[in-house]
Design goal:
- The structure is a homodimer.
- Chain A is built from five helices and five strands.
- The first copy, chain A, is of the alpha/beta class.
- The first copy, chain A, has a five-stranded mixed beta sheet with strand order 3-2-1-4-5.
- The longest helix of chain A has 20 residues.
- Chain A is globular and about 45 Å long.
- At the A-B interface, helix 1 and helix 2 of A face helix 1 and helix 2 of B.
C-alpha cells in the first residue's frame, strides 16, 4: 500500500510518500511547501493545492494520513494551519484518496515509542525505519513521513526498512 | 460590480451575491450550505467547494468578500471554521476572484452603524439596504449578504436599494 503523509504547519506544509508491504516500508519521496512568501493566503493555498495534486498524480497513493490539529504555538497559528488543512482535505476528497487522522502524540508514539519525542528523535527513527538518510529533507517533510509511517503501523504493516527485517 | 459575500461557520457556510452600481445595491441570490451531516470533513468540504464553484460559474462575481475568523464559540469551532475558510479561499484563487477580508465587527459597523449589532439587527438592515424580504433566507446566507454589502460600501459604492435612493 502506498501512503501519503501530510503535515500542515502555519508557515510550511510537508508531504511524504512511503510504500508499505509485507517486507516493510520504503521511502518514495518527500518535500516541503513554503506557505509564507508574503502572498495573500489564497494564493499560497492555491500553490499548495497545485503541488498536492501533482504529488497525488505522480505517486498515486492508496491512502493518506493527515496530522490532526488541536494545538499550535498560538491560536493564530492554529487557524492558519487549519486553513491549509482544509485545502489539503478538499484535494484528498477531490482525488478520492481516503485518509486517516492522527494526533501529533499518536504519530510520535507510533514511530518512536514515546508520545513526547523531540523533532530530532522523530527524524532519527524515521531514518532508521525507512533505512535512508534524511539530512537533505526539510523538517515538515520528515514529519509527514512520520505520519505516513504511523498510518502504516496502525494499518497492520510492519514498519522497518524493506529487506532489512 | 458584482460581489460574492462568504460567511463560513463551523456547521454551515453562507454565500450571498449582490450587484453594486451608481444607483445602489441589488439582491441577486443567497443560500446556505449544510456542513454538518455526519460525513467526514473532507466530503463536506468537497460538497461546499462544488457549490461554491457553481455559484461563481452562475453569478460571475467580480470580487468577493470573506468574513475573517478570530473568534468562535470555542477553539474547536474556530478550527472547523478555518478548514472551511481555507477551502473557500482556495476556490476563489482557483477561479481568479479577488477577495477582501472583514472582521465581524467591521461588517456589523458598515451595515448597521454599530459594531456589536445583533443577528436580528443585521438581518433587518440587510433587508432595508437591499429592499427585499429575507424571511426565507437562512441566517448564514443573510450574514454573507451583509459581508458583500460591507465590501460594496468600503469600495465606495453607496449602499441602498437600487432606484430608491
Amino acid at each position: 500500500m502506498r501512503i501519503l503523509g501530510i503535515d500542515c504547519g502555519s508557515e510550511t506544509a510537508g508531504w511524504g510518500v512511503v510504500e508499505a508491504d509485507a517486507q516493510g516500508t520504503t521511502f518514495i519521496a518527500a518535500d516541503q511547501v513554503d506557505l509564507n512568501r508574503g502572498e495573500p493566503l489564497a494564493e499560497r493555498l492555491l500553490e499548495f493545492a497545485r503541488q498536492l495534486r501533482l504529488v497525488i498524480e505522480q505517486f498515486r497513493p492508496d491512502e493518506a494520513a493527515v496530522e490532526d490539529v488541536f494545538h499550535a504555538k498560538n491560536a493564530r497559528s492554529a487557524l492558519r494551519l487549519a486553513h491549509t488543512r482544509g485545502a489539503a482535505l478538499l484535494i484528498l476528497a477531490e482525488r478520492g484518496v481516503p485518509y486517516a487522522e492522527y494526533s501529533p502524540a499518536q504519530v510520535k508514539l507510533s514511530v518512536t515509542g514515546y508520545g513526547r519525542a523531540t523533532k530530532e528523535q522523530v527524524r532519527h527513527m524515521v531514518e532508521a525505519l525507512l533505512g535512508v538518510s534524511l539530512v537533505s529533507v526539510a523538517e515538515d517533510a520528515c514529519d509527514a513521513l512520520a505520519v505516513a509511517l504511523c498510518h502504516a503501523l496502525r494499518s497492520g504493516y510492519s514498519v522497518g526498512a524493506s529487506g532489512t527485517l
